[in-house]
Amino acid sequence: MTNQYKIFPLGDSAVTFDMGNSISEALNQKALAMQHWLLANPFEGLKDCLVAYSSLTVLYNPVLIKKYYNPATTVFTWVADLLQQAFDKSVQTKPVARELIKIPVCYEAGYGPDLLPLAQSARLTEQEVVTLHTDTIYNVYMIGFLPGFSYMGEVNERIAMPRKQTPTPVMAGSVGIAGPQTGIYPLNSPGGWQILGRTPLRLFDPFAPEPVKLQAGDRVQFYAITKKEFEEYSS
Amino acid sequence: MSLTIIKPGLLDTLQDLGRPGYGGLGINRGGVMDRYAAQVANMLVGNEVREAVIEIHFPGAQFLFEQNTLISITGGHFNAMLNDEPIPLWHPIVVRKNAVLHFPKLQNGNRCYLAVHGGFCVPQWLNSYSTHLKAGAGGFHGRKLEKGDEIPFKESSIYFAGLLKPGKEFEALKWGVDTGSTYLHPNEIFFIEGNEWEQLTYQSQKAFLQDNFTVHPFSDRMGYQLKGVDLHRSANTELVSSAVSFGTIQLLPNGQLIVLMADHQTTGGYPRIGHVISAHLPKLAQLRPSDVIHFIKTDITNAEQLLIAQQQELNILQRACTERLNSLYVKH
């Protein structure tokens, strides 16, 4: 673990602890460990805690912190010191051997509008792209953008196509690629990722006891299913 | 105890102060755009500040009150009328059964808030009444209000009905709220530097501080797009996604700016050149397309002080409103 990091205000009610502008499992694990430490050592006014690729952001209510702790410094400095403690004191346990989550994806025509163009530009067959996409075990780095949208990585560099210039409508369940990232759209949404296929699984269900199925730190692998199997899932 | 939508508006939703704590699931805090106006609306009718209110955009819906009800309207000025008579904003108002609330003309502001005594009785989703349109959850069935919707209240306003004078459709109570400095100098928006501020070229920093920016028509509860001079960074480093917040000013690849508002996505990868201070978000939330913004730089110390002062003012208002309403109970 390097000690290169930066703590900065994300407005007057949030602080980000940024460990470097990179997609790294080690940094992501450290951010998760810090989050774990903070949730075990909460403070009055703590509103939320967000893990991203290589950063942790804490959202807080400055009025409550001022009232309860009356720091001599700014509230920002007070929270920044606490994040420093979280960094120093959190123990980065070895990633728990979580059960591998297997996600069925239909890559057939009509399900992945960008599969063929991506294959052509990568000089691969569609089947080769699917194999490369399903061979890798992905780490879920973060959930963001939409309720339950999982940012996973890293995809094989042969199929790591950049996102589109202009977003287009994307159907719920669509599985896409953007550079080294892969992810699943939990809801119908405009989106710029290259869509390879679609899963029949519902990854966001607002009224389920756990509305979001995947969480940061999960391990995921995709497997191909036929159109018929997709329809059987959905019915 | 309820009100009924007899004609739908552009975008009327139930909102409260939002659902913090679910950012890690990609679920944003959401909630009202103007937290000051929404809290005052609740105070005026004797509610806790966290009760649900209806956030109304122009053109607003028409609301029929099924019972005598104590209400208040705060925020944007849309010439609120009960039947044929204008009613004041920022006042408690007792409304007679069957009166119709409507908003014929936009004067200023971008959204107003309707609170009813006791609050609206709808189920919470993830500890909040706020409507999350994308998730289709929270508020009234996870959607905007439509014709025929009947929104129930938690409590009756029967104590206040005696204040109605014969032949009058409503009675505005004698006291109101002075919004003080909250909306003064509406176009002057304070910000603190974002993490990528230093990446702006000197000319772009200067332009950001000196030029005016105009709110673009494509502005909504997710974000305000701004029109202005193109801004540039000295190096176009790609950023990996990380958290963003209500008020974050992002630089888009085309050189234009967007200010993230209540329904912003939880994470983003565009450079954060600044953050609007929380005390000025109510002011910003009342700006409309084609309104002008002049950004003024401040620091975190001042941002915190202004927010704490605004909260202290709200606390004073809350006590004053409670005392006034309690004095009415005693008289009865």
Automatic annotation (TrEMBL), chain A:
Q: Which UniProt keywords apply?
A: ATP-binding, Hydrolase, Nucleotide-binding
Q: Looking at the record's lineage, which domain of life comes first?
A: Bacteria
Q: Which SMART domains match?
A: AHS1 (SM00796)
Q: Has keyword Hydrolase?
A: yes
| Domain Carboxyltransferase positions | 5-214
Gene3D superfamilies linked to this entry: 3.30.1360.40, Cyclophilin-like
The GO terms this record gives for MF are:
ATP binding; hydrolase activity
What the entry lists under InterPro entries is as follows: CT_C_D, Cyclophilin-like_dom_sf, PxpB
Q: What is this protein called?
A: Carboxyltransferase domain-containing protein
Keyword Chaperone attached: no
Record SUPFAM superfamilies: Cyclophilin-like, PH0987 N-terminal domain-like
Q: Which PANTHER family match?
A: 5-OXOPROLINASE SUBUNIT B
From TrEMBL, chain B:
Keyword Transmembrane carried by entry: no
Provide this UniProt record's keywords sorted from A to Z.
ATP-binding, Hydrolase, Nucleotide-binding
Query: What Pfam families has UniProt attached to this entry?
Result: CT_A_B
Q: Keyword ATP-binding, does the record have it? A: yes
Q: Which SMART domains match?
A: AHS2
Q: Which domain of life is it from?
A: Bacteria
Mind telling me which InterPro entries this protein's record contains? CT_A_B, Cyclophilin-like_dom_sf, PxpC
Q: Which SUPFAM superfamilies match?
A: Cyclophilin-like
Q: Which residues form the Carboxyltransferase domain?
A: 24-313
**Per its record, what are the GO molecular function terms?**
ATP binding; hydrolase activity
Q: List the PANTHER family hit by this protein, alphabetically.
A: 5-OXOPROLINASE SUBUNIT C
Could you tell me what this protein is called? Carboxyltransferase domain-containing protein
What organism, scientifically named, is this protein from?
Answer: Niastella yeongjuensis
